[in-house]
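Reading a protein record of the kind used here takes only a little practice. An example makes this concrete, so a full record is given next.
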Amino acid sequence: MFNRFQGLLSKGKKGIGIELAPERINIAQLRKQGQGFKVTTLYSHEVPEGIFQGGQIADSPALADLIKAAIEGSKLKVERVASAVPMREAIIRIIPVPAELDDQELRDMVLNHEAGLYLPYPREEVDLDYQKLGFFEDEDGIQKVQVLLVATRREVTDMYLDTFREAGLQVDVLEINSFALIRTIREQLRQFAPQEAAVLVDIEFDSTEIAIIVDGVPQFSRTVPIGTFQLQSALSRAMNLPTSRNTELLQGMTIPNTPVEGTRSGQTGINPGMAALLRVLGELADELRRSIDFYLNQSDNLEVAQLLLAGPGGGIGQLDEFFTQRLSLPTTQVDPVTALSLEVDQEIPPVQRPGLGTVLGLGLREV
């Protein structure tokens, strides 16, 4: 039961990383090279409409067939994979437990006692994993240890495991996509002090996953229903173009340096397509601000040091400057290729790099 949701820090076994997203299947294979890593395979396969609904797998047999086709297209011969479920499907909590517990006692307390206090579902309906973090003293001077608790509903876990099984693949590791992404920018996160938080903004196809990270660990998470599809749709409607799942048009855009007040009032002096795009980005910025304010209001002596843009929408030209101006917070677009000093055989455009964090993080699990 516990082992069905594979360990957060367990090692892979020479497989590949596969990211399942509503619009694409991404595959990455890495190998150790000297002190670093080399990307030996990086492949993407389109997913048509109807396979996912609301971010969840709606047609498992069809998705299994697409995974088979993607493996064939990548020309890889593998049987084992690492994959991830969306953060929106997970419950992530940091809980304090007595420091004097041995490993078995800790496991029993977390999985059989403490977990039930933090789960909105019956204990028997979820798969759980946990990881010990650092020690601390509580307000009474009692030494305790923080434990990272991660849970998903069992029906979600089953759906992913069954889909891969139907595709003829064995899942070595099933984790949360934000953990895979964090793995690729771990060194970048280490630059922040313990009182500084980084906000990871993962702009995916039909949603944006927001994770507030302190000491490399997500402390708060939220999913906002604005993604690249919503951005592209707003752009297409304003330009009288048909709506498409293909977001190449969006990737070719560069966000202009427009004063904040002009963006909010609509007096931007730019074309209707860009004005529509800026309005949706403004909505996303407002949701980010609400999430940040909500978390900071519950946290003492903590400040947000930086926004980190990731996902397929994270690389849009000058999007970092837009959020820096709109939210008055330093913002950068993550680049997992550079962050990991990866050797690649072909040049990967900067606009695409933020979208590779999850699949490269999964690939690292299998090295």
Observations:
- The longest strand covers residues 126-137.
- The first helix runs from residue 60 to 74.
- The chain is about 35% helix and 30% strand.
